[in-house]
Write a structure and sequence with these properties.
By secondary structure, the chain is an alpha/beta fold. The chain is built from twelve helices and eight strands. The termini are far apart.
C-alpha cells in the first residue's frame, strides 16, 4: 500500500479532541460535532479521537466506538482520522477493526499500561494490533524511555503499516537517539508532548506534533507549525511564550489538569461544559478565572 498520504497527515498538527459531556454525564454528541467542525474549519488536517485529552481511559467501550464514528462522519474526508486504541491486546485489536469498519485512516496504539513491559513483549503487542488491520496506518504512542530504537526498527521491519511514532518522553536528547537508531526517515516522528516540546523535538527530527491546546485556539497551534516548517525558531518561540502559562497549568502535578484546563478554556468560551470524569477534577474557582483570562488574550 501507498502510505504517503498518511505520512503527510502525521507530519502536521495532530489534534486530540476533547470529549464533551452533557448535563447527565453522557457524551454530548452535538457539542462534540461542533468542536470537530471548529477544528476542521480552523485548518486542522489530522484528528485523534480517543486520545488522552479525549479521556480515553475514562470512556466506556461503547463511548469510544461512538466517538470514533462521530469523528469519521464529521471529518468526511476533510481530515485524516487517527483513532486511539489500547488496553489488552484483544481489546485493542477489536477497537482497531471497529476503526477500520467505521472508515478511519490510522490507529494510534496507546502505551501499554501493564506494569511489566518487556521490549520483545512491546513488539509483540504492537505486531498483534498492526497485523489485524494491515489496511490502516499504525502509530505507537511511546511514553516508556526504556524502549530502544532497535525495537521500533524491528517492529517497522515486520509491519510496514507502522508508519509513525508518537514519542512522548520528556527528553529531547533521548528522542534524537531513539529516532536515529530506529530510522529517522523510516517513520514519521510526532512530538507527543505538544507545543512546549515541539521546537526542541523538531530541531532533532520531529516533523509533526500533537496538541490539546488546538481545541481552544487552532490558529495558535498552526502558527507554531508554520514557523517550525520555515525554520523560524524565534517565531516558534514567540508562540511558545504565548502559550507557556496555559501549558504549564496543564502539566502541573504530573499533568493532573491536562484535560481539565482545556475544557475550562472551552467552557469560558461557551463551547462545552467544563465537566471531566474521575480521576480528573474540575479546576477551583481562582484557576478558572486565570484560564479565562489567558484565553481572552488570544485570538481564537
Amino acid at each position: 500500500m501507498d502510505y504517503s498520504p498518511l505520512r503527510t497527515a502525521l507530519a502536521d498538527v495532530v489534534a486530540i479532541p476533547v470529549t464533551p459531556y452533557d448535563a447527565d454525564g453522557a457524551v454530548d454528541r452535538a457539542a462534540y460535532r461542533a468542536l470537530l467542525r471548529r477544528l476542521l474549519d480552523g485548518g486542522v488536517k489530522t484528528v485523534t479521537p480517543n486520545g488522552n485529552t479525549g479521556e480515553f481511559y475514562a470512556l466506556t467501550l461503547e463511548e469510544r466506538r461512538l466517538v470514533t464514528e462521530l469523528t469519521v462522519e464529521e471529518a468526511a474526508g476533510r481530515a485524516a482520522v487517527l483513532v486511539g486504541v489500547g488496553h489488552d491486546a484483544a481489546t485493542a485489536v477489536e477497537a482497531a477493526r471497529h476503526a477500520r469498519a467505521a472508515g478511519a485512516d490510522m490507529v494510534m496504539v496507546h502505551q501499554p499500561v501493564h506494569p511489566y513491559v518487556a521490549q520483545d513483549g512491546w513488539i509483540d503487542y504492537h505486531r498483534t494490533i498492526a497485523e489485524a488491520v494491515p489496511e490502516l496506518g499504525v502509530v505507537p504512542y511511546l511514553r516508556n524511555p526504556l524502549i530502544e530504537g532497535a525495537a521500533i526498527a524491528r517492529l517497522g521491519e515486520e509491519c510496514p503499516q507502522v508508519i509513525g511514532v508518537k514519542y512522548a518522553v520528556h527528553d529531547a536528547t533521548r528522542f534524537a537517539a531513539v529516532a536515529r537508531d530506529a530510522g529517522l526517515d523510516r517513520f514519521v516522528w510526532v512530538a507527543g508532548l505538544a507545543e512546549l516540546y515541539a521546537p526542541s523535538y523538531w530541531a532533532v527530527g520531529a516533523t509533526g506534533f500533537t496538541s490539546g491546546l488546538v481545541n481552544v485556539a487552532p490558529n495558535v497551534s498552526l502558527n507554531m507549525l508554520g514557523a517550525l516548517r520555515a525554520g523560524d525558531y524565534p517565531g516558534a518561540m514567540k508562540v511558545w511564550e504565548q502559550i507557556r502559562r496555559f501549558e504549564d497549568l496543564r502539566a502541573e502535578r504530573q499533568s493532573a489538569n491536562n484535560v481539565t484546563v482545556v475544557k475550562e478554556a472551552l467552557a469560558a468560551m461557551g463551547l462545552c461544559r467544563r465537566d471531566v470524569r474521575a480521576p480528573s477534577k474540575p479546576l477551583p474557582e481562582p484557576r478558572r478565572a486565570e484560564v479565562a483570562a489567558i484565553v481572552e488574550g488570544w485570538s481564537v
